[in-house]
Amino acid sequence: MKASLASATSVIALLALEAAQAPGVLVTVATTTASVVAVTLADTSPAQAGPTTITAASPFTPSVSTGTLTLFDLVDGAASVSQGATFTASNSAGGSRSLSTPSSSVSGASGTLTGGAFVVSVPSGSIGSASTNFTFTGAQTGSVSKSVVVGFGGGGNSGATLTVVGSGVAPVAGVSGSSGYVLVNDATSGVQVTVSNSGTGNKAAPVVSGGATLNNLNGSISTIAGFSGGGSSVNLGDAFGGPTSSKTFTFTPTSLTKGQTFAGSAVATFSNGNGVTNASGNLTATVSGTGVAPVNAVTNTSSILARTGSSAAATVTISNIGDGNKSGAGTISNLNGAIATSLGAGFTAKGGNPSAVSLVDSASTTLGFTFNPVSRGTSSATTTFSFTNGNTAGTNKAQTVTASIAAQGVAPEFQSKLGVTTNTPTAVAGGATAASGPTINFGSVGYGMTATQFLEIANITTDPDGGNASLTNLTLNSFTLGGVDASKFSLGLAGGTVITKGTSVFLPITVLSTSFGFLNSTLSIFTDQSVALGGIGDTFTFSLAALIVPEPTSLAMLGGGLAGLALMRKRRKRQDADATV
Fold first, then answer.
1. Least crowded by CB within 10 Å, which of 12, 73, 314, 399?
2. What is the CATH code for 414-550?
3. Cα–Cα dist 476/482, whole Å
4. Domain boundaries 173-292, corresponding CATH code
């Protein structure tokens, strides 16, 4: 009968309910046999905190059921943590049964774990229960454990095992320093010291002292000489509760130039979180790095020459020759600034010139200008860069840089002389001609004779040409003779003659006539003065005059004939007088 009753009797399970389970929660797992013996474990300690571990159980017969209960105690040298448990048995089998467990105690480096004993007789058809406390006092981080056998005697039941674990928990301090590139003169750029809590102190119930939660990592970070930053308190939680488990402090060198290296150490002082005993202590983090910065470099065409009527190009280039982008600080590490331009006479800016720049490392941009002078003389163009950073001293401060382009409009200059007398006509632009000009007078020219005047034409410009003679060469493009007597004059120089700066040529002008009297004509010289080389520029017009008279032999014969005629007339008058007498 007992054997059949024992074989018919089954014990359901033993469940371990850990600290994070909500207070008063009762978890029961039961089998479905004819005679049911239910064993349950209830959490009676609402102060305990931590994750819950539940291990499924099976009847006492034929196997052994196991469960785990973990107690977390903050290693702080203060009060212990207790976990209360109530065991309830329902005996539906025949005969009384004893629900029991012995007292338990275990000690280790991590602390001491104790548990009380109980024995309860549960009559057939009745429900019995017993309670006990498990207490753990943590001495350092780590754990101790004890296997507690809960028996329900009789019927061949071998009992179930409850594993009770005492775990000492605490915050664990850590610090680390970084090294890298720091943007000079930027308060937001720097190297970092990270303070972290890798512990598990918040698995235990909160312990508060002097307004501070001791489960967290508490302390402060020092300043570093020559740096801004630090000097702040630290209160860090962990993965199981509290505030964030890490915090980063930025340290910025207060005096730094591009290329300068630096190093420093920050001391983190903690009131807990050091070692297995959760002691106070200090940790040191080292930071180091190199200053980086954008640096401006402005180059430009310093001077240009342009012939009037033509053009010349000029540029201004701004480059970032620094390394500020190594800091990873974004656009503030670019070379940044505004651009303003003042243009003198003859200057125009090319389309697309920017009004501001933000250049990454090694980048550049070029501004273009055109100088097209309409007259001889000097001019200039000035570009002003107002940089907000990237000065040439490497301290990444603001700087104003000015780039000036000096320009000069140049041209040939026409001058004419007859002998030692300068007789340069007034220039007429664009290939037009004047009706008259300075007179080149040939005087009296014998009939049938020729006379020649040599007009000296010089290029007297003193403008620089920069080694390019085409800027100041004077081209005598062509010559034109006009007026009713144009055919009586001829020229001895071909069109297209080029006169270099400081030199001259002679233009032979010859008059020949087969008629007596005054001859008048005009001479127009077409040049490229005031325009591009070879273009249609200024024209210079002269008046030509000559008197054609008989040549000397003819005059003598004429004089002799006239004298003879006069003598003959005189004789005839005398003869007529004698005949009358």
1. 399
2. 2.60.40.10
3. 17
4. 2.60.40
- For residue 525, give the nearest of 464, 482, 483, 472 by alpha carbon: 482
Separation between Cα atoms, residue 530 and residue 471, nearest integer Å: 11
CATH code at 296-410: 2.60.40.10
pTM, 2 dp: 0.72
First-residue to last-residue Cα distance in the chain: 225
Helix (H, G, I), strand (E, B) or coil at 324: helix
DSSP 256-286: --TT-EEEEEEEEEEEEEETTTTEEEEEEEE
pLDDT at 67: 67
Q: Which band of pLDDT confidence, cut at 50, 70 and 90, is reported for residue 525? A: very high
Torsion region of 273: left, alpha or beta (phi above 0 gives left; psi -120 to 50 gives alpha)? left
pLDDT tens-place string over residues 401-425: 999 999 999 999 999 999 999 999 9
Task: Output the pLDDT for position 83.
Answer: 80
Place of tokens 């290939």: 431
What is the pLDDT at residue 126?
81
**Residue whose C-alpha is closest to residue 224's, from 259, 197, 257, 190:** 190
What is the C-alpha separation between 154 and 96, in angstroms, rounded? 8
The domain limits of the chain are 2-169, 173-292, 296-410, 414-550, 553-581
